[in-house]
Write the structure tokens for this entry.
Amino acid sequence: MARNLTVDGSGPRTQAERRALGLVSVVAFVVMALAVPLPAAARAPEADTGSRVKHVWLDAEGQPLPFQGNAEIEEFLRSAQVVSREEIGVGINKMDKLLLEKDGVRAHAIFRVVDEVHERLRIGDRHHMRFKDSWAGECAAYAIAQLFGIDNVPPTVKRHLDSQQGSMQIWVEKTRDHTAKDFSPPSPMAWVKQTWGMFIFDNLIFNADRNTGNILAGEHYRLWLIDHTRAFQAKPELLSPEKVERLSRRAWARLLETSEEELADATREYLDPDQVGALKERRKLLVEHIQARIDKAGEGAILF
């Protein structure tokens, strides 16, 4: 789960990593360009996407945890005792992998405490001014995911630990390398649909540092999104609208119906007023961008 940083603070930028990260967008583009929508009656049943299969969280030994829902996981993250703590990661944003225990239950978690502002920072080909890198973005990303019914962000809470304040996130066990040559989901389209959702999410939260290291493939080929400390910059603009290609009708409905008050209520504990204001504006821009695509290409070409 570590982020690999270059000297200037940017994410992975080797040629191989550029190809791996770009592959998701290329595949999505090709699928959309070649697909001809069929009448509903003629469509073959789709395999379940990873996000539709109920995820079973695992303990430190790889056995199912007894939690019945996210609320129980959140309570565990807030109150479990720390059995061990190990620093992992490289670069400026180190993090700790913890072993937590409560009532005989043991599970791994990630604790992030980074909280800094860079006057100038380059990430990939972009230069950012007054760039915020904070653990609070991790909590805000989970809050937004829950608000929009997105189940690809692991449960995350705010916690004080050893006089430090940070984000505590459940560890995703048994992940596989989605950039490996032998990575072959049984339903490629199901995987692509999850990546479409990722691009919507990243534009909404202005995630400036999505790279191969913070995209995980879990069991049932569920795509997991982690490491959002560099999201929620106070910029009222979409980061990469060209990557917003298709989305589910459920996601579109949530974008339309979510109010500014709901956005503020979900994030004000973690974001400052400028960040919340920019988030509200990005939702509006995202709705306008998607509606323009629907008007041009038709609902069947954009919504599924």
Summary: The radius of gyration is 19 Å. Strands lie at 81-88, 95-102, 105-112, 115-123, 126-134, 156-161, 164-170, 215-217, 223-225. The chain has eight helices and nine strands. The longest strand covers residues 115-123.
